Amino acid sequence: MTTTKQKVLFELLAHQGDWTSGDELATDLQISRESIWKAINALKKKNHHIESRKNLGYQYIETPTLDEDIVRYYLDDQHVDDIFVEQEVTSTQHLAKQYLTTHQVQKPVIFAAESQSSGYGRRGRAFYSPATSGLYFTIVLPNKTEDWSQVGLLTTSMAVIIAQTLEQFFPDERIDLKWVNDLFINDKKVGGIITEANIELESKSASAFIMGIGLNLTTETFPDELSNIAQGINSKVTVDRNQLLVTLAQRIIDTYDHGDIPALLDEYRRRSNVIGKQVTLKLGNKMITGTAKQIANDGGLIIEDEHGITKSFTSGEVIKTTVFR
């Protein structure tokens, strides 16, 4: 059921950039002027910036925080089962996994948080997730295929979509991709993707994929151990994080449903910051060193070792890259 506060917010968003009088709001929503006034005050207490001017009325400006109602307003709810936006969580991946223990999903479900106390990436590595300067969310994507040859391309495809979208919001930046799931600007990481499968024990198949995205957007300071390897995309740019979340979620869902995988793989290769470089790949307890020759059609990393032997790897982590001189 939509509350009065939500109705007023949605009406202001529908006329964002214009002034709407209290009388107009009351007439359109068929509620009293006093109810409008109370709803406006309640929204302001929730960090919504709403201008009020005599003889003009109200105008919605912005909010500095992630807001579930705004995300719901702009996101096409025909394409999602549910949306959850929290202030602080351990991680949005944890929320998604807990949700899947009691729910079967037919359409994507989105979990986002203002901050994470235990955000993580591949191999459980911590992801720094401070409030107000980043975007941290997980999308549960119902598995629609048993063609496991395409599963390896899920992360590479989404990495391209995320990079392209970030460049739209940060037009002066160029996002490169480090195999397989990291987003870079020059030599520093600005974000990462982790894709995990929800396995049904009875059928031994994946019922859904749990895709977590962590982005340091305008973050300026990092813990000492990260300051030389991570950065925000651009601390000087003002970003509407609700709009960014909506845009990313919609494009990820559309790509998952209808994406042109070959074209996205070509774009992934163009954005790769490892092709042509000497790399060290950590594979379990084993280290493999060689030249990264190409990204394979299944998303694997093709490496040529010092003996000229070429092999494709679909797992592992590139822990070092060196430019040939």
From TrEMBL:
Its EC number is 6.3.4.15. Biotin binds at residues 116, 189. The lineage of its organism: Bacteria, Bacillati, Bacillota, Bacilli, Lactobacillales. Coiled coil: none annotated. It comes from the Bacteria. Belongs to the biotin--protein ligase family. HAMAP family: Bifunct_BirA (MF_00978). GO terms for molecular function: ATP binding; biotin--[biotin carboxyl-carrier protein] ligase activity; DNA binding; transferase activity. InterPro entries: aa-tRNA-synth_II/BPL/LPL (IPR045864), Bifunct_BirA (IPR030855), Biotin_CoA_COase_ligase (IPR004408), BPL_C (IPR003142), BPL_LPL_catalytic (IPR004143), HTH_11 (IPR013196), Transcriptional_repressor_C (IPR008988), WH-like_DNA-bd_sf (IPR036388). The keyword Nucleotide-binding applies. It catalyses: biotin + L-lysyl-[protein] + ATP = N(6)-biotinyl-L-lysyl-[protein] + AMP + diphosphate + H(+). It holds the Pfam family BPL_C. The keyword Transferase does not apply. Residues 22-41 bind DNA. NCBIfam families: birA_ligase (TIGR00121). Acts both as a biotin--[acetyl-CoA-carboxylase] ligase and a repressor. Keywords: ATP-binding, Biotin, DNA-binding, Ligase, Nucleotide-binding, Repressor, Transcription, Transcription regulation. Gene3D superfamilies: 2.30.30.100, Bira Bifunctional Protein, Domain 2 (3.30.930.10), Winged helix-like DNA-binding domain superfamily/Winged helix DNA-binding domain (1.10.10.10). GO terms for biological process: protein lipoylation; regulation of DNA-templated transcription. Residues 78-260 form the BPL/LPL catalytic domain. This is Bifunctional ligase/repressor BirA. The gene is birA. One of its GO terms (cellular component) is cytoplasm. It is an enzyme of class 6 (ligase).
